[in-house]
């Protein structure tokens, strides 16, 4: 099932604080729809987000990949959410190992399918 942001508009949330762009995306998603997130706690630690969600204390709006491999956490898509574009950056003038090239090839293939 795909949820609407309106389905969770009053849910108590935990957010990632500081300059983390995922947190900003949550606020922007709510504000774009004329809502305000109900943050009951903010943290800089993804592990704290996982623990509070696992404990049932609150929910969180996070990129799917950051939570989907945890068997105790259920992830569902939000209809109004925008794609988050990630970038890998490196200095082209610095030599790197073959493992780096392998990782770039893997990442390109993986993110093409999302």
Secondary-structure topology with pairs:
Blueprint (H helix, E strand, L loop, with lengths): L11 E5 L4 H12 L5 E6 L2 H9 L43 H15 L2
Parallel strand pairs: 1-2
> What's the story with the biggest beta sheet?
2 strands, parallel
Round the Cα radius of gyration to an integer and report it. 17 Å
Could you estimate the helical fraction of the residues in percent? Answer: 25-40%
Give unreliable regions as ranges.
Answer: none
What strand line-up does the widest sheet have?
Answer: 1-2
Q: Mean pLDDT score, rounded?
A: 83
Distance between the first and last residues' Cα: 17 Å
Shape: elongated
Q: What class, by secondary structure content?
A: alpha+beta
Helix count, per DSSP? 3
Number of DSSP strand runs: 2
Taken as a percent bin, the fraction of beta residues is 5-15%
- Sequence of secondary-structure elements: EHEHH
Oligomerization status of the protein chains: single chain
Summarize the structure.
The chain is an alpha+beta fold and 114 residues long. The protein contains 3 helices and 2 strands; from the N terminus they run βαβαα. 32% of the residues lie in helices and 10% in strands.
């Amino acid at each position: 099932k795909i949820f609407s942001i309106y389905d969770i508009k009053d849910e108590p949330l935990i957010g990632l604080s500081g300059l983390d762009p995922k947190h900003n995306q949550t606020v922007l998603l709510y504000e774009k729809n004329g809502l305000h997130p109900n943050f009951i706690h903010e943290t800089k630690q993804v592990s704290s987000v996982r623990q509070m969600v696992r404990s049932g204390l609150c929910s969180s709006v996070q990129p799917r990949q950051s939570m989907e491999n945890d068997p105790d956490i259920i992830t569902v898509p939000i209809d109004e959410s925008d794609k988050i574009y990630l970038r890998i950056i490196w200095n082209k003038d610095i030599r790197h190992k073959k493992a780096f090239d392998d990782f770039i090839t893997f990442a390109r293939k993986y993110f093409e399918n999302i």
